[in-house]
Structure formats: structure tokens, C-alpha cells
């Protein structure tokens, strides 16, 4: 008898016993009080790791595999769906293009960012003590404009995906190579770490969840060789972003347990899993992905809620900036378009091949690259490049170089706005605190707000107000007063009431909330550079001891910062910008980019696999029957982080 069947038999026996007890009570005339059903203690049982599937869904890549696998399957997280009617307009989700790039101020912002990048390059000396000599794009342009491609042997031809049998959907690589003239819509179900809900075709929450279910089911069935009917014997570990959308996580868990039929699930955060995967007990985790960069301080398996920060830029923004710099230098492949999937793939490859953060590499260098597209000859191009290879990745430290205008660029963890299925949530607990507790917290809040250099929730410096973001970290986590609220509060319009406490404030509530909202909107519209964001996240930790731990263990994961020289470059910037008081206290600042010599893109997935093997995770499993009965309340009860 399998493990899942034993569980089902035990559940049936317990139900029969409960029914018998009810019958006896009815016979005796006993009236039972009406009360919400209590959540049972988790079952303690031996779990086989080869029956646990770890899923790490990214914006561009899906990583999925059994917990016992050495490496996960890595496939493009994309689906092509066939049109239901002929003549239907074609829709394709953008890859490198995004909102906010075509505003009147975009080009000016790009140019200003590039000036700051060039100044930073010139100001840092090379290892031999000499300053770099800047290379003008015009020098490369004069050469590149003369280049004509050479035709290569076409024995190996790239082909469009065969759609002659009219499959209803295609997944991964097959979806990427669907001919644009075929009647298919292309959807990326995750964008910037969140579900890609939008107003266009296939953008409803139901449609996005259906895309996820189709992609994951296809990979499990076709590549992991697990029949979908057998998923009732399997468990699932789902990795979610540090700053997550509660409604989206709830719907994905519902889909995995009830639609796909997994017997149980654990939901855990990417940053915590990254520390498990790298074997570190504490670290400031910097996850530079394709479309977002998230930061979080993790201590002993717990993510510090105040230190969570998500920046709405990543590797794809570096790729797009590199293309802009290539065009400025006379890029010889003149038909390249950001709206083409295959051209986006090529640009991604060129960025990964040519770009670096090693300031000792200077001057003009000659490179070559190939283009291999369906229904076209394979071509070999020569290209001469100078500082473009260094300028593009430095956009991560000077995000104005990306030219994104009018978009929300920074996110913090907001409090839950409540869920009708979970009435006894943190809002309920806050509302039912003792008056004495509330009055002491509100007094502490008043002190924190009136203190010069103190901040709202320790997230923002009162001294800096809505001024320069470089001043923001100074107020974070600098005081223990108001610690009760400080440990749990995040900025955001929805938390105004909680932040105020129950006591009287020195200014009217409406005025305080509008001021707080204005500060937040200004903060979120600015993009912190990667080094400033790391300092900000660490400075939001509660104690100096924790901050010291974080400075000595800055873990960089994800594929967005895999450039030659990135570790030394980031370390140099952190040491130069960290507060002077900490330079004396911290013994050594360490940036870790390849723990255990592992691929940084796989570390979080590996941590999920480690999680499956730990005995301590027994109490974190949410079983299918429990989810059917209690719903989202199970996440609050069983999740390893504050839901």
C-alpha cells in the first residue's frame, strides 16, 4: 500500500469515529457548541524525497524536478495557444520591451544615466593604478558600419516548430519557435515575479492560472515521465517571491492541490531556500533575475520582513540597454528588432558572451557572432566594441540608464488586506489586542515619528523625507524603540491605520495618511541602484549584530549578475558606500556569487530540494484534504513565514 493510500484510509477511519461520537451525543441529547473547526496537527510520517517535486517558477525560466535530482529541468516559461477561431487577431506578450520606455523623457534619462556610468568608470582606477581611457562609440561605429556578414555552411538549419497537426498548445522551446505567421498567441504567465495579469487576450487571472497548469502538467508528464493520474502520490514544494501577492499564491496552491491533484504542498520563499541551497545560516540574499531584483536578509531560516525589497529591473533591462549601445556603435546586424522573439534570444546570448564588470579590460576589441534563423542562411558577423560591454551591466547600479519613466520601480511587503476565507488573520489579531498594548505601541510610534532621523516604520528616514534616496537607509532599523510594531510593519497606503496605532496622533489621521502615501509613491517611483538597495536592506535589520552578519555574507543568486568581475565590482562598491560606523565594526565584507561552485541560477531550487529532505519540515506540509476543508487558513497556520 502506498503512502498516499495509507493517509486516505487513516482519514476515513477518523471520520467514521467522529460520526459515531456524534450519533451517541444525539442519542444522549447533548448540544454541541457552534464553533469553527479547529485545524488538526500535521501528520508525522516518513516522506520519500523521490516523490517530492520542487517547482521554482521564474519570469523567463521554469525550474522543476524531483527533490532527488542533481539538477532541475530548465525550460523557457512560455506557452503558445492556438487561436480558437480563424481570423482572430494575434497576441504576443513582450519579452524585452516594457511599459515606460517610449515616454518623452526616456531618452534624456538614458543619456543622463550613461553620463553617470561613464563618470563612475573613469573615477575607478584599474588594478595597475592607472585610470581607464574612455573609448568613444564613434571609433567603433566607423568600423562596424563597413561590416558585411559572411554566409556559413547551412547543413544545420534551425526550423520553425511543426504545427501541421494543429496542437492546441505548445510549451517551452517549441513555443519560442512558433512561426509568427501561424495562428498562435504567445503568453509568458509570470512577469517581474508576479502572475502576468493584464487587460489583453489571455491576461485574466483564470487564463494565467490555466497557462501555468498546462505548462507544468506538460513538463511533469512529458519530461519527468510522471502520469498526471499518479500526482496523488506526489507532494510539491513551491517557491514564491519574498514579496508575494497573497491572492495569487492562494490561487496557485489551489490549482496544484485541487486541479493537478498533488497530495500535499509546502510554500516557501526564494530567499530562504537560497540560504538552504548554499549552506549558509544567515545572508543578505540578492536575487538578480531576468525581470526583477529582490533583496532580503535571512537569519536562521527566517526572512526579515522589513528588509524585503523588490526592484522592477533585471537582466532583460541590461540586455535591452546593451542593444541600444550596440546600435549607437553601428551594430552590423541591422534587422535586429526587440519585438522579435528570436532576436531577443540572440541579444540575450550576446550580452552573456560579451558583457563584463572587469574594469581592467579596456580599449576596442573585435568579436564575432552568428545568426541562425529559420528560412534564412546562417551568417557570421564581425563587430568591434569598446566600453559598451561594461556600460550595459553597470545599468544595474545606475538604473536611470534603462530609460524607464512613470513606472513603479520599488516594492515593499504590504500588509494583508484581508481574505473572507480567513477571518482570524493578522488584521483580526491587531484589532483585538489589549488596549494597554495598543496605547504603549502608539506612544512608541509617536516617539519614532517625532524623532529626527527616525522613519515611518523604520522604512524611510524622516530626515531625508521625500528627498534623495541615498539618504534613506540612514533611518532604517537604527533604534529599538517601537520595536513591537517595527518588526511587523511595512510601508504602504493600506497600513496607515496599523501604523498609527489606537492612540491620538499629533496631526489629523487623514493628513498623516496622505503624507505617508505621498512619501511611498515617491519612493516607489525611484529605482535604487543595486549597491544602494543592498545597504538599504541590511540597514532595515533590527540589531547591529544582525547587520554585521549580513555584511559578512552577501549572497548573490539568479542569472542577472553572472558577469566576469561582478563579485569584485560589487564588493568594491559596498565597502565604499557602507556607513563609516560599520566599516570599523565589520571584520570583513564578503560577496558570494558561486557558493559551493554551483550555478547561482539553480541555488534556490536546490534549497527547495534540501527542504524536502529535512525532518523539521514535517509540520509545514499542507495536505489536500486540509486545503479542501480550511482553505487559505492553512497557509497562515503552516507556512514557515508570516502570511
TrEMBL record:
Compositional bias ranges of the Basic and acidic residues kind: 1-28
Q: Which InterPro entries match?
A: Actin, ATPase_NBD
Q: Which CDD domains match?
A: ASKHA_NBD_Arp8-like (cd10206)
**Region named Disordered:** 1-42, 432-482
Q: Where is the composition biased (Low complexity)?
A: 433-442
A Pfam family for this UniProt protein?
A: Actin
Provide ranges: composition bias, Gly residues: 452-467
Q: Which family does it belong to?
A: Belongs to the actin family.
Q: What is this protein called?
A: Actin-related protein 8
**UniProt organism field:** Larimichthys crocea
**Classification lineage:** Eukaryota, Metazoa, Chordata, Craniata, Vertebrata
Amino acid at each position: 500500500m502506498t503512502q498516499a493510500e495509507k493517509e486516505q484510509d487513516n482519514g476515513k477511519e477518523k471520520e467514521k469515529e467522529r460520526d459515531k461520537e456524534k450519533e451517541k451525543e444525539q442519542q444522549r441529547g447533548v448540544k454541541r457548541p457552534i464553533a469553527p473547526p479547529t485545524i488538526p496537527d500535521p501528520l508525522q510520517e516518513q516522506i520519500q524525497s523521490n516523490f517530492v517535486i520542487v517547482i521554482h517558477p521564474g519570469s523567463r525560466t521554469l525550474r522543476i524536478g524531483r527533490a532527488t535530482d542533481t539538477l532541475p529541468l530548465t525550460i523557457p516559461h512560455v506557452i503558445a495557444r492556438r487561436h480558437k477561431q480563424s481570423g482572430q487577431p494575434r497576441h504576443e506578450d513582450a519579452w524585452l520591451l516594457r511599459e515606460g520606455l517610449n515616454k518623452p523623457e526616456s531618452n534624456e534619462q538614458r543619456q543622463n544615466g550613461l553620463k553617470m556610468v561613464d563618470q563612475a568608470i573613469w573615477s575607478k582606477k584599474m588594478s595597475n593604478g592607472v585610470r581607464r581611457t574612455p573609448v568613444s562609440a564613434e571609433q567603433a561605429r566607423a568600423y562596424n558600419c563597413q561590416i558585411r556578414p559572411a554566409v556559413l555552411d547551412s547543413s544545420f538549419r534551425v526550423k520553425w516548430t511543426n504545427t501541421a497537426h494543429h496542437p492546441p498548445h505548445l510549451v517551452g522551446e517549441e513555443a519560442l519557435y512558433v512561426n509568427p505567421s501561424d495562428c498562435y498567441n504567445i503568453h509568458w504567465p509570470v512577469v517581474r515575479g508576479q502572475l502576468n495579469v493584464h487587460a489583453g487576450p489571455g491576461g485574466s487571472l483564470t487564463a494565467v492560472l490555466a497557462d501555468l497548469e498546462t505548462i507544468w502538467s506538460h513538463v511533469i508528464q512529458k519530461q519527468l515521465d510522471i502520469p498526471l493520474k499518479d500526482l496523488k502520490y506526489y507532494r510539491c514544494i513551491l517557491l514564491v517571491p519574498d514579496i508575494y501577492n497573497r491572492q495569487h499564491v492562494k490561487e496557485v496552491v489551489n490549482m496544484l492541490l485541487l486541479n493537478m491533484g498533488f497530495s500535499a504542498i509546502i510554500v516557501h520563499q526564494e530567499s530562504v531556500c537560497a540560504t538552504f541551497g548554499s549552506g549558509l545560516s544567515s545572508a543578505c540574499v540578492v536575487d538578480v533575475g531576468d525581470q526583477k531584483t529582490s533583496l532580503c536578509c535571512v537569519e536562521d531560516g527566517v526572512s526579515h520582513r522589513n528588509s524585503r525589497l523588490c526592484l522592477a529591473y533585471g537582466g532583460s533591462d541590461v540586455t535591452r540597454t546593451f542593444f541600444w549601445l550596440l546600435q549607437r556603435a553601428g551594430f552590423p546586424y541591422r534587422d535586429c528588432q526587440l519585438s522579435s522573439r528570436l532576436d531577443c534570444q540572440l541579444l540575450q546570448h550576446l550580452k552573456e558572451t560579451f558583457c563584463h564588470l572587469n574594469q581592467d579590460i579596456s580599449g576596442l576589441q573585435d568579436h564575432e557572432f552568428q545568426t541562425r534563423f529559420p528560412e534564412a542562411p546562417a551568417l557570421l558577423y564581425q563587430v568591434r566594441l569598446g566600453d559598451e560591454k561594461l556600460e550595459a551591466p553597470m545599468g544595474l547600479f545606475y538604473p536611470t540608464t534603462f530609460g524607464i519613466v512613470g513606472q513603479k520601480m520599488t516594492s515593499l511587503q504590504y500588509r494583508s488586506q484581508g481574505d473572507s476565507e480567513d477571518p482570524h488573520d493578522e488584521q483580526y489579531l491587531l484589532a483585538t489586542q489589549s488596549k494597554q498594548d495598543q496605547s504603549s505601541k502608539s506612544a512608541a510610534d509617536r516617539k519614532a515619528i517625532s524623532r529626527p532621523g527616525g522613519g515611518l516604520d523604520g522604512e524611510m528616514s524622516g530626515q531625508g523625507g521625500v528627498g534623495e534616496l541615498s539618504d534613506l537607509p540612514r533611518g532604517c532599523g537604527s533604534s529599538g524603540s517601537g520595536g513591537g510594531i517595527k518588526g511587523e510593519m511595512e510601508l504602504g497606503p493600506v497600513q496607515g491605520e496599523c501604523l498609527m496605532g489606537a492612540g491620538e496622533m499629533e496631526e489629523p489621521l487623514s493628513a498623516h495618511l496622505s503624507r505617508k502615501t505621498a512619501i511611498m509613491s515617491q519612493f516607489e517611483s525611484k529605482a535604487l541602484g543595486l549597491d544602494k538597495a543592498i545597504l538599504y536592506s541590511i540597514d532595515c535589520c533590527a540589531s547591529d549584530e544582525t547587520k554585521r552578519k549580513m555584511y559578512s555574507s552577501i549572497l548573490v543568486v539568479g542569472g542577472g549578475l553572472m558577469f566576469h568581475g561582478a563579485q569584485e565590482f560589487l564588493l568594491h562598491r559596498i565597502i565604499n558606500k557602507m556607513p563609516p560606523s560599520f566599516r570599523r565594526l565589520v571584520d570583513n565584507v564578503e560577496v558570494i556569487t558561486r557558493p559551493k561552485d554551483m550555478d547561482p541560477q539553480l541555488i534556490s531550487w536546490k534549497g527547495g530540494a534540501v527542504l524536502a529532505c529535512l525532518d523539521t519540515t514535517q509540520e509545514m506540509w499542507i495536505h489536500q484534504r486540509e486545503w479542501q476543508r480550511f482553505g487559505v487558513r492553512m497557509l497562515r497556520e503552516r507556512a514557515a513565514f508570516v502570511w
